[in-house]
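Researcher: Good morning. I'm working through a list of sequences from a screen, and I'd like to move beyond sequence-only analysis. For each chain I'm collecting a predicted structure so we can compare shapes side by side. This is the next one on the list. No need for commentary yet; just the structure.
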Amino acid sequence: MAEKIQAIRGMNDILPDTSHQWLFFEHTVREWLKDYGYKNIRTPIVEDTRLFVRSIGEATDIVEKEMYTFTDSLNGDSLTLRPEGTASCLRAALQHNLLYKQTQRLWYIGPMFRHERPQKGRYRQFHQIGAEALGFSGPDVDAEIVIMLADLWQRLGLTPYLQLQINTLGSSEERAAHRQALIAYLEQHQEALDEDGKRRLYTNPLRVLDSKTPSMQAICEQAPRLLDYLGDASRQHYDEWRQMISDANIPYVENPRLVRGLDYYNLSVFEWVTQELGAQGTVCGGGRYDGLIEQLGGQSIPAVGFAMGVERLMLLLGEKNLLPAADVPDWFVIHQGEGTARYALRVAQQLRQAGLRVVQHMGEASFKSQMKKADASGAYGAVIIGANEVAEHNVVLKPLHGGLPQQTAAFAEVATAARTLLQQIQAQKETD
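Model: Good morning. Structure tokens for this chain:
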């Protein structure tokens, strides 16, 4: 027997017993984004490596250690499986002139890829849903994004389990001044830095402040704060953003150590975090990135967006029993005898055209065997067809829940009878 081939570790199958929960989540998100005027964009999972080097930054962990990069055997180009969605979204917007004299509200969904050690809520292939508001410069759209995310958590029942943390990264000039002061400060404590801190000291010192190493917490707490280097315009943007969030009655915590792992962010940054998932506490993060579009070859266009980790949100929804039970059919059609399979096909299709969910047994089997399958399917009732039903042009409708009696319905009336009986079965089941 040939050896079974397994999925790559950290790249998981989504099986039928949970896929309906993913569909529920995705449907909720799609309807929510539609309510705020966002339009879907779909991009390839493979991009020119230069797109991510230019946007994310060569000195980031993603580019240095985590990207799946390979050489195209056809032409020698360096290609990369996308590690995040913003760069691809903006590349498409620029390539197809979506930003010419207009603003855009875009959203995406799909798999992303990072080469890292798989653990709970963190995988090599993971799924993100993100949105980008392009061409808007004021703090009002930053606030709207926070408000709309708070709305989503309310729709999903997650509000009690999430905390909003906010910060500002100022402008590139302000960050440069702060960076110089931060490097000088960290150099004084270089012996106490962990390996990541030492590696990031000169390439990405802001990320040193995001360290979770206990021995470094005091050093990070006393480090120069970016807030102290902000100019008037950045402070005004931050103050107005905070006020709009407060006006919407959304509680938040200011976290001066909140930074983004990607180089392109400026001004407003935020994360929604939870204490319910252990170390993997961030389920959604985002902020403003006014310089990125210009870095990718476009004009200077302001932009703000967010991305949420679907796996982590699904874990949280599952932990709190907020995911729906498995979908079940309304009716399971069983049949036995000559000519019953053809008749059953006609009956099943008539029921489906009436808006009912129907599964039909295929092939030959005894009535007893088929009834076991009907029970196992979770269907509310069984449609039973034998030689007599074919001859008399009717069916038997048998409730599988609630103890109601079975009834016979003529072929022409089967949809109406099945719908009425289904309502009775569902009502009886709720009272049991």
